[in-house]
């Protein structure tokens, strides 16, 4: 059950701005912590949300440690675009440009807004699961998502209004 969610935890950590090797290290540490605290898992709880909440705490501690020497720079759009570049032959130029624009818009949002959008749309978590991961009330998640969507739309409009007509 727990192993099924390892890719979700790894992707979540990449979103935090970790390099692939750091994300792997923090994923492993998160699973070690999950194993140690398996008794705290409630059956009515989502396993993925429980693991992501552990990963979030481990990631935070990791970023505070001396091991993590460089600053986190939010959404790592350059790294993601580099990975996409390797597969660009499978993408049409319009798809690549749309992904690049989306990443730029996301990078312009606050960390809180990036995080809730990531958990909702990339991790496909419910508002209840997001509340469990972030350890905040579900109403707060709902509000953040609403504001994040509005901010995303405004930023997207701003970015696209600067583009030459295509």
Description:
- The protein has 166 residues and is mainly alpha-helical.
- The chain folds into two domains: 3-64, Orthogonal Bundle (Rna Polymerase Sigma Factor, Chain: A); 77-161, Winged helix-like DNA-binding domain superfamily/Winged helix DNA-binding domain (Arc Repressor Mutant, subunit A, Orthogonal Bundle), CATH 1.10.10.10.
- The protein is 69% helix and 0% strand.
- The protein is built from eight helices and no strands.
- The longest helix has 24 residues, at 138-161.
- The N and C termini lie far apart (48 Å).
Could you outline the blueprint of secondary structure elements for this entry?
Layout (H helix, E strand, L loop, with lengths): L5 H10 L4 H17 L10 H18 L12 H10 L6 H16 L2 H12 L4 H8 L3 H24 L5
Helix pairs in contact: 1-2, 1-3, 2-3, 3-7, 4-5, 5-8, 6-8, 7-8
Outline = globular
Number of strands: 0
CATH topology of the largest domain: Arc Repressor Mutant, subunit A
The biggest beta sheet reads: none
Specify the CATH architecture of the largest domain. Answer: Orthogonal Bundle
In CATH terms, the superfamily of the largest domain is Winged helix-like DNA-binding domain superfamily/Winged helix DNA-binding domain
- End-to-end Cα distance, whole Å, is 48 Å
Would you tell me the structural class of the helices and strands?
mainly alpha
Mean pLDDT: 80
Strand content: under 5%
pLDDT < 50 stretches: 66-75
Helix content: 55-70%
CATH class of the largest domain, named Mainly Alpha
Radius of gyration: 17 Å
Provide the number of structural domains: 2
- Per DSSP, the total helix count is 8
Order of helices and strands: HHHHHHHH
The quaternary organization reads as: single chain
């Amino acid at each position: 059950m727990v192993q099924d969610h390892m890719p979700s935890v790894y992707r979540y950590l990449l979103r935090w701005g970790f390099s692939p090797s750091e994300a792997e290290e923090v994923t492993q540490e998160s699973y070690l912590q999950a194993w140690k605290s398996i008794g705290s898992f409630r059956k009515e709880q989502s396993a993925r949300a429980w693991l992501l909440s552990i990963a979030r705490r481990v990631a935070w501690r990791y970023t505070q440690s001396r091991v993590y020497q460089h600053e986190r720079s939010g959404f790592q759009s350059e790294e993601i675009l580099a990975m996409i570049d390797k597969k660009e032959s499978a993408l049409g130029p319009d798809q690549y440009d749309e992904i690049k624009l989306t990443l730029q818009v996301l990078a312009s949002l606050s960390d809180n807004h990036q995080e809730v959008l990531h958990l909702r749309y990339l991790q496909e978590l419910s508002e209840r699961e997001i509340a469990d991961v972030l350890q905040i009330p579900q109403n707060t998640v709902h509000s953040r998502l609403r504001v994040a969507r509005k901010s995303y739309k405004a930023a997207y409009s701003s970015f696209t209004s600067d583009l030459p007509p295509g």
